[in-house]
Amino acid sequence: MKIIFATNNAHKLREVQAVLGEGFTLLTPRDCGITEEIPEEQPTLEGNALQKARYLHDRTGLDCFADDTGLEVEALGGAPGVHSARYATDGHDFAANNRLLLRNLEGAENRRARFRTVVALILGGEEHLFEGRVEGRIIEHETGHEGFGYDPLFCPEGSDRTFAQMTTDEKNALSHRARAVRKLADYLHSIGK
């Protein structure tokens, strides 16, 4: 099955393809001639995921899915949340985001956080939402070189390593995105796609 995934992020594409497995060919927006930035203007992860999926579907008429992920830190009232990718700047500057997060958590005893991903699927014109989450904590300095984004700062519950210290397979065994994508994959398999 060919399906458009609303990302041009190579790391995310590999992660999701690994979870979906064989039988699915992921197309990127660029593969479909969409080179402009896809809007993300909603106040919630669910809203952003749906907005991105609808944008692709409206322009291509093809089945597609989009995700939005947020890091929700308890001591920061759930921030950065829906603004995770653009926490420090208007661009996707992972290093600046991590520096700002650490600065905002200086002196905080409560470092509990969760990653939450919402996937919006448009299949045959019908919309579906799938959510994945993982609880954990923010450590005090970046550790590890794998992954992307906040991975060097996020240590999932039950682990003494950050996502950035894990292989793709290890991270996919418990990550928020993998959990949401597994729900998506289970749904697609259940309807025989």
Explain this structure to me?
The structure is a single chain. It contains 5 helices and 7 strands; from the N terminus they run E-H-E-H-E-E-H-E-E-E-H-H. By secondary structure, the protein is α/β, with parallel strands linked by helices. The longest helix is centred in the N-terminal third of the chain and has 16 residues, at 45-60. The termini are close together. The mean pLDDT is 92.
SS content category: alpha/beta
Low-pLDDT sequence parts:
none
CATH topology term:
Maf protein
Structural Rg: 16 Å
Architecture (CATH level 2) name: Alpha-Beta Complex
Number of domains: 1
CATH classification class: Alpha Beta
Helix and strand arrangement:
Layout: E1 2-5, H1 10-20, E2 25-27, H2 45-60, E3 64-73, E4 80-81, H3 94-104, E5 112-123, E6 126-138, E7 154-156, H4 168-172, H5 176-190
Parallel strand pairs: 1-2, 1-3
Antiparallel strand pairs: 3-4, 3-5, 5-6, 6-7
Summarize it.
The chain is α/β, with parallel strands linked by helices. It has 5 helices and 7 strands.
Keywords:
193 residues; alpha/beta; Maf protein; 7-stranded mixed sheet; 5 helices; 7 strands; globular
